[in-house]
Structure formats: C-alpha cells, structure tokens
Specification:
Layout (H helix, E strand, L loop, with lengths): L28 E5 L6 E5 L12 E5 L1 E3 L3 E6 L5 E11 L2 E7 L9 E4 L4 E8 L5 E7 L3 H8 L25 E4 L11 H9 L3 E7 L22 E5 L1 H12 L4 E4 H11 L9 E5 L14 E5 L6 H10 L1 H13 L10 E4 L1
Parallel strand pairs: 1-17, 3-12, 3-14, 4-11, 14-16
Antiparallel strand pairs: 1-2, 5-6, 5-8, 6-7, 7-10, 8-9, 9-10, 12-13, 13-15, 16-17
Helix pairs in contact: 5-6
C-alpha cells in the first residue's frame, strides 16, 4: 500500500502559527479526540487531569534544550557565520549546521564572544553538515549558556524573551536542539495534582534533533529517511510503565518524542526494556503500537512525520477532521500552540 505525502496536507492560515508562548503554561486550549469514534470536545489544558485515571502512567521526556545557536565571525575575514550544534561526537567535537556553508571549509576558524569560544571546521559530513572542534577555557556548557541562543523552529520569527519558556518545567538532561513541545503545557502544580490522583509519572530521555522539523520531500512517504536520535530509559522508569500496563492502566505519552522512545525500546510483547541507544523509528498509518495507549501532543505541520505518527494512532480521517475543526476554532498551532489529547 502506497502512502502519499499529500494525503497529510491541510490548509493552515499563517496567522494561526503561535509566535509567542502564553504566560500561563496550563491555560492553552486542549482539543480532545476520541481515536475510535473521531468525536472531539474543547477544553483548557489544565483539565487534562480529568482524563487521567489512577493506575495510568504518564510518560514525559526530560531532555533539556541547549542554547545551540551560535553567531560568530570567521577569523581573518570578519564574515558573519551562524552555527547550530546538532550532535556531540566527542568531548569538543560537534556535528553542526553552518550558514553560510561556503565560508566554512575545513580549516576555517570562527570566533564567538570575542574569542571566548573558537570553533575550527575539521570535516564536511553528510548533507553538508560540518564537524567543528571547539577550544575554550572553562566549562563548555557555561560558555554556551552565556553565548548561545535557543534554536527556535524556522516558523517562529519572534525573539524569545525568556529562554526557559522553550524548556519544559521538568527538563533535566541537556542535549536537544528542539524542545519536546507537548510538555510545555505542564506546570509543577499540575503535575503534582496528577500524581496526587494516583497517576504514575515516568521520565524517559530522547534528545530531539532537528530532523524533527525536516520536511518529508518524497512523494511516497515510505521512502523518507528519519534522522537518528539518542534515547535513554532507566530501569526504575521502565518498571513504572510496565507495571501500569500489567495492571490494566493506560500508558499516556506526553509528546511524539516520548512515544517514539518507548515504542523503539519495547519488545514484541509490549514489554519495555531499560537501556540506551539510537532510534530512527518512523511511525505512520498501519503501525501497531506496542505500548502507547493515549497521546498528548501539539498541532503539527502539514505533511510532517509528526502528523503521520498522530494519524497512525487515531486514523488519518479523524485527525484531519479534528485539524480542520481546530483551524475553524482558531486554535494556535505548532511549538508554542495549543494541545490535543488523543484518548
């Protein structure tokens, strides 16, 4: 069966792309979609707790976005160069995206923060990405915090006033080039209330790469190649998820990244294995979920792998009908937008 990229298209007015986060995280809107019937209802995000039951397990991705966007100048020419850190290869060597690439041939040296940080291009790898070796005095993460900017998605054109607003309140392990945005709706108070109602909260880590935003360019989606991303699941957290499943509770993932993590690490019987590794799992309609029962997620780009994942869970027709309704109701879309709960 062939699946076309165009089957996942919908009309999105530009002005519905949220440019700024709401002041109160939990006050965004929530569209609830029944995956069996396609029925929808409209709520406020903090009402999510009414849909979670004792014995359920909520799975969150505790990755932390690093301020991975660095703007510097090429030593010897003063040409402005922008670098986006993608993946740490060794201690001080990163795979990066460099603009403009033609100014960043191997041997080129770039100065950031008036020499606080120096990057040297040492190789060109697949898709034109550059390997860059950094030299500095002190602690890399602290220098990055001082010089780097949050790598907001390309469709957000506003400056972010507060760096922390592009982090979840439970962000812990640094390594992402993008936030797991479904988690941005939670506040510490809301998570406490949810736990108070007998819902277990399990943390997994998946460092989100920019591949998340890579458009599907092939017409037949089965030819699309996913970038691999690093994940880690601790024994204690795998146990929480397996326990919920064994006792008849539901496994509810916050975001497509948590979903892809547990689906990658589950065996054929739906038992989650602790450990770490790289995943390039691509979930699209026809996929049989091994562990996940329900999903909390944002509204995704037309023709994106994320929309395909959501369609695998709730059915393409149901999802596209819900998206049309969200457009009619003027929901806010993408990273800083509103949320959807697929039950």
């Amino acid at each position: 069966m062939e699946m076309r990229r165009q089957d996942f298209s919908f009309n999105l007015p530009q002005e519905l792309i949220a440019q700024d986060p709401l002041k109160d995280r939990a006050s965004s809107r929530l569209l609830v979609l029944d995956k069996e019937t396609g029925e929808t209802s409209h709520h406020v995000f903090r009402e999510i707790k009414d849909y979670l039951h004792p014995g359920d397990c909520l799975v969150i991705n505790d990755t932390k976005v690093i301020p991975a966007r660095l703007i510097g100048s090429k030593i010897g020419t003063d040409a402005k160069i922008e670098i986006l850190l993608l993946k740490r290869k060794e201690d001080n060597v990163w795979e990066t995206l460099v603009k403009p690439g033609k100014k960043a041939k191997p041997g080129a040296r770039i100065s950031f923060g008036e020499g606080l940080l120096i990057g040297e291009v040492i190789d060109v790898v697949e898709e034109g990405n550059r390997l860059v070796r950094f030299t500095y005095d002190g602690i890399f993460e602290e220098i990055l915090d001082q010089l780097g900017q949050m790598p907001l998605p390309p469709y957000i054109t506003h400056q972010l006033e507060d760096k922390n607003r592009y982090q979840t309140v439970y962000a812990k392990h640094s390594g992402s080039a993008a936030a797991p945005t479904a988690g941005l709706h939670f506040t510490p108070e809301l998570l406490q209330e949810i736990e108070g109602e007998g819902v277990d909260i399990a943390s997994v880590t998946l460092h989100v790469g920019l591949g998340t935003f890579r458009p599907v360019k092939v017409d037949n989606i089965l030819e699309h190649h996913m970038h691999s991303e690093f994940y880690q699941i601790e024994e204690s957290e795998a146990e929480k998820i397996n326990r919920a499943k064994e006792k008849g509770g539901r496994v509810i993932c916050v975001g497509t990244t948590s979903c892809r993590t547990i689906e990658s690490a589950a065996d054929e019987n739906g038992h989650l294995r602790a450990g770490s590794g790289w995943t390039d799992i691509f979930i699209y309609p026809g996929y049989k979920f091994k562990l996940l029962d329900c999903l909390i997620t944002n509204f995704h780009l037309p023709e994106s792998t994320l929309l395909m994942l959501v369609s695998a869970l709730a059915g393409r027709e149901h999802v596209l009908a819900a998206y049309e309704e969200a457009v009619r109701e003027r929901y806010r879309f993408f990273s800083f937008g509103d949320a959807m709960f697929i039950k």
